[in-house]
Amino acid sequence: MSAVRGSQRVNATVASSEANRTIILSALRAAIAIASESGAKPLLQKAEAMRNGMLAEGDQAT
């Protein structure tokens, strides 16, 4: 999956390590904040769904 941040294309991948997972969750939180501030509801919903999915995966692993 890829997303556009400014003029850069950012690829989101499966978190293969805890460090990667933390980085991806941080990026998703930033995307949620930006989407909330700008009123971009489709982006907000997608970012929240991705974040919630990652958090649920983490809960299942523990």
Summarize this structure as a short list of keywords or feature phrases.
alpha+beta, two-stranded antiparallel ribbon, 68% helix
Radius of gyration: 12 Å
Q: What is the overall number of helices? A: 2
Shape: globular
Cα(first) to Cα(last) distance is: 26 Å
SS-derived structural category: alpha+beta
The share of residues in helices is 55-70%
Order of helices and strands: EEHH
Main sheet summary: 2 strands, antiparallel
Query: What share of the residues does DSSP label as strand, in percent?
Result: 5-15%
User: If you average the pLDDT, what whole number results?
Assistant: 83
Spatial sequence of strands, sheet with the most strands = 1-2
Poorly predicted tracts of residues: none
Care to count the β-strands? 2
Word description of this protein:
The chain has about 60 residues and is an alpha+beta fold. It is about 70% helix and about 15% strand. It contains 2 helices and 2 strands. The protein has a two-stranded antiparallel sheet. A hairpin with a 2-residue loop joins β1 and β2. The longest helix has 21 residues, at about 20-40. It is globular, with a radius of gyration of 12 Å. The mean pLDDT is about 85.
Helices and strands in order, then pairings?
Elements: E1 2-5, E2 8-11, H1 18-38, H2 41-61
Antiparallel strand pairs: 1-2
Short description:
68% of the residues lie in helices and 13% in strands.
